[in-house]
Specification:
Layout lengths: L9 E4 L2 E6 L11 H14 L14 H14 L3 E5 L2 H13 L4 E4 L13 E2 L1 E2 L2 E2 L9 E8 L21 E8 L24 E7 L9 E5 L1 H8 L2 H4 L6 H9 L1 H21 L6 E2 L6 E4 L2 H9 L2 E6 L8 E5 L6 H13 L1
Parallel strand pairs: 2-14, 4-5, 4-8, 8-9, 9-10
Antiparallel strand pairs: 1-2, 3-11, 6-7, 10-11, 12-13, 13-15, 14-15
Helix pairs in contact: 1-6, 2-6, 7-9
Length: 340
């Protein structure tokens, strides 16, 4: 389906209007007038793009403002932005290849943090035996903050089972949790408190935060290492107007986050829970385990997200709740779900 206007809560297809519960604009920012005005103001100040290296002799204060905001919001010692979440992930994984004896991955992680020769973290529901053996080595664990088809953050308590002669670095992709879960949408990075060497968060900013770009958060030493990488220094940075907007929009993020929480609480109060629906009141995705429901919703003029992440995968059918949905939208979609 091709559309000629950004799909917010209403999507127009073949000159017919449908309710839209897809996309990833969780905080409803791409169409938010106050947010758009900030972006426009910053484009007028910083231009439409800045193609120079971040290490050039001219340094833009926009990056200082935005990255300082992100560090405070995520509760990380330091952050750095990149032109996309994908690049953020690739930078981190490429750097860790030089510091890691073995990678382990949790379930079906996003392509941004995949690497060849990575081993499954769990085998037959148990931790990989290599993590429990007597060999001293440096390991890196790769995981999404909230995996696809899941509605709650990963339980990191498995880290307590890994003996301390394994030096652990944890890389968490928070593209679908930053801005959405945690205090004011701070994500889950700060809540991961285990005796590991290092934790690193990567995330797209093009989802909840409504701006094309990515972020890496960690300790200051690691962020300095990222900034010294050739791929980082030879690439253009995130659009400076967008990075400045991150800082300027801090109050808008709080306001929209509160609207999203109110929408989720309302759904929780009226949705009849059953085995074909996965929903948690703290997360704005409702997964449908029945393909029939997707067609039923469409017949009621409701479009949801339905696609395959990879060619051979099962269809991912999910209802996406945003801060912009109004009570009447929620009543209509829940009425269909409750009648199923």
């Amino acid at each position: 389906m091709k559309v000629e206007k950004f799909p917010d809560r209403i999507i127009e297809i073949d000159q017919e209007q449908y309710l839209y519960f897809g996309g990833t604009a969780y905080l409803g920012l791409p169409t938010n007038k106050e947010f758009q005005d900030l972006v426009i103001k910053n484009i007028l100040k910083w231009g439409t793009t800045y193609g120079s290296s971040r290490t050039a002799n001219i340094q833009l204060t926009a990056y200082d403002a935005g990255e300082k905001f992100l560090a405070s919001h995520i509760d990380a010692e330091s952050t750095v932005t990149a032109s996309s979440g994908m690049l953020a992930g690739k930078l981190v994984v490429d750097l860790m290849k030089k510091q890691t004896d073995c990678f382990f991955h949790f379930n079906d992680i996003h392509a941004a943090i995949k690497t060849e020769n990575s081993l499954p973290l769990f085998e037959n529901s148990k931790l990989n035996n290599r993590l429990l053996d007597s060999k001293s080595e440096k390991i890196t664990i790769l995981t999404d903050g909230i995996p696809s088809f899941e509605i709650k953050p990963v339980d990191f308590s498995f880290l307590e089972q890994i003996p301390n002669h394994k030096e652990i670095t944890l890389i968490v992709d928070e593209s679908h949790s930053l801005g959405i879960v945690g205090r004011n949408g701070s994500g889950i990075y700060a809540s991961i408190q285990y005796p590991i060497k290092r934790k690193i968060m990567v995330s797209s900013l093009g989802k909840a935060f409504g701006l094309t770009g990515g972020v890496i958060a960690s300790d200051a030493e690691f962020i300095t290492q990222i900034k010294e990488m050739e791929v980082f220094t030879s690439a253009g940075g995130m659009n400076p107007a967008f990075v400045q907007t991150l800082s300027d929009a801090s109050e808008i993020y709080k306001k929209q986050y509160q609207k999203l929480k109110e929408n989720l609480s309302y759904i929780d109060s009226i949705l009849i829970k059953n085995s074909t629906i996965k929903f948690d009141k703290n997360y704005p995705l409702i997964y449908l385990l029945s393909n029939d429901l997707v067609e039923k919703l469409k017949s009621e003029k409701i479009i949801i997200a339905s696609f395959k992440y990879t060619k051979d995968a099962e269809p991912l059918n999910r209802i996406v709740i945003t801060a912009n949905h109004i009570k009447e939208d929620l009543d209509k979609i829940i009425e269909v779900l409750n009648a199923h």
